[in-house]
Every structure is written in structure tokens, then in C-alpha cells.
Amino acid sequence: MTTLEWRAYEVGHCLHPECSVRKGGRWRMTRFPALAFLIRHPQRGAVLFDTGYSEHFFSATEHMPERLYRTVTPPRLKDNESLLRQLQRDGIGADDIDAIVLSHLHGDHVGGLRDFPSSSIFCAREGWQDLQRRGRLAAVRKGLLHDLLPSDFPKRVRWIEDAPRAAMLPDAFAELAPGYDLFGDGSLTAIELPGHATGHFGLFFHSSDHEPVLLVADAVWSSRTLRDGVPPPAMVTSWLGDTDAYRTTLERLARLHRAWPQLRMVPSHCAEHRP
């Protein structure tokens, strides 16, 4: 079994009422970190899971209709808080990133993609096709921004759905199968987690201390939801994706959490997992 070193980075955050992500929650404005993850593979080197916000996000949302995105969910990004700047402070350059796995194409997950021009990209074909069918307004209504994807994206992308089916996925993942073995060695397995957005995937691996880890992206916004099962309002999940699929995924993840408590599930916007 391949084990991998990993760490989280907070790459900006957005502000939104708690009730937007938790049915019956408060109207108080809440900070939601945008987390990206660095994973070190023994052969492939540095791999990223998502990229968070960057200066590119603010350029892409300068004008209408894209400006609606940062009006509805106001983002904050400190100077030198982009993922590239943080990696550089840790001695990692853009060219050191072998691959970037995108959970989905929402702007707060692909905002820094243009900062890594030589990296291969893993993405769901379904998500890409959905974006291509949308004009500017239709895209931003679903949290998508055309300008965040580099012009050579089609040449660099490897579709998750074309990866081999995972042969060694633990039995506990039966409800979430099949997984996709991204590197063909069982080290990184993409797990489809439908509902939040078209082509939404998580990533499963074993950490260097032999802890099983599932990065669940936006399948849940808070670990609290895994514990108590309270979903976001249907109005929010239907606006972004498919409420029935979202709640089915949430129920499956909650059952997985109860059946395998040793599995560390990490949502991309949960304050409990801020580095």
C-alpha cells in the first residue's frame, strides 16, 4: 500500500450566512475557508487537490455578470495568500507540481489553476462539458467562471472517468463505488460524490502515518453535518446542483463515517480543518 504525505493550505475564504449551508442555521455571517491540498507522491512528486482563490478570481469577476459571484459570496484573499505564493514559501515552485486534481470547476476551487501552467490536470469530463454548454450568465449562476481555465486546458486535461477502475477500494466504500485509480498504482482514488455540482469528485488515499483520508470537497461543507446529518437548505443545493443527489451522497458519507470512524473525511470549507 502506497502512503502519502499531505497537508492543507487555506487559500482565502468567503463570507456567507450559516443558514446557507445548514438548514435552520443562523443568519450570522460565517467564514468559510477555501482549502487546497498538497500531496506528495513517491514517483510523481507534488500533486494538488484544488487551488482555492487567487488574483485571477478577482480579475475574472471584475465585470458583470461574473461580478455577481463575488457579490453573493464575498471572498477575501490576503496579499501573498494565493496557493502559489504559499507553496513558494515552502520551497515548492509552480513547475514542481506534477498534477492538479480538480474536485469540480467552481471558481473557489480552480481560482489558482492558471498559476501552474506546466501541470497536468485531472477533471471530470462531465463537469467540463457542462461548463462548455453554458454562456457567461448561465455559468456564473452555477458558480462557474470561464476565464479561470487556461486556454490550453483541453491539451493538458486527463478525464477522471477514463482512469482505470480502482481494484483495491475498501469494502466500506461499496455505496460510493466505483473509484478511479488516477495513477494506476492504487495511491490516489477519485470517488464520485454527486449532487453539489456536475462532475463533483472526492479523493481517497492513505497518509504517511497510515491514516485513511477522504477529501470530500463540497459534498459536505462542515464536518458537523457528517455527525448530525443536517443538510443545507434545498434552495441552495438545487441552485448549485441536484438536491436529491446531494442528500443521497450526504447520507452515504454519514453512513461511511459511522461504519469507519478511523477514516478522516475533510470538507474543503470546514473551519475544523484549517491548517
UniProtKB/TrEMBL annotation:
One of its GO terms (molecular function) is metal ion binding. SUPFAM superfamilies: Metallo-hydrolase/oxidoreductase. InterPro entries: MBL_superfamily_lactonases, Metallo-B-lactamas, RibonucZ/Hydroxyglut_hydro. SMART domains: Lactamase_B (SM00849). It holds the Pfam family Lactamase_B. Coiled coil: none annotated. Residues 33-260 form the Metallo-beta-lactamase domain. Its cofactor is Zn(2+). Keywords: Hydrolase, Metal-binding, Zinc. PANTHER family: 102 KBASES UNSTABLE REGION: FROM 1 TO 119443 (PTHR42978:SF2), QUORUM-QUENCHING LACTONASE YTNP-RELATED-RELATED (PTHR42978). Belongs to the metallo-beta-lactamase superfamily. This is MBL fold metallo-hydrolase. The lineage of its organism: Bacteria, Pseudomonadati, Pseudomonadota, Gammaproteobacteria, Lysobacterales.
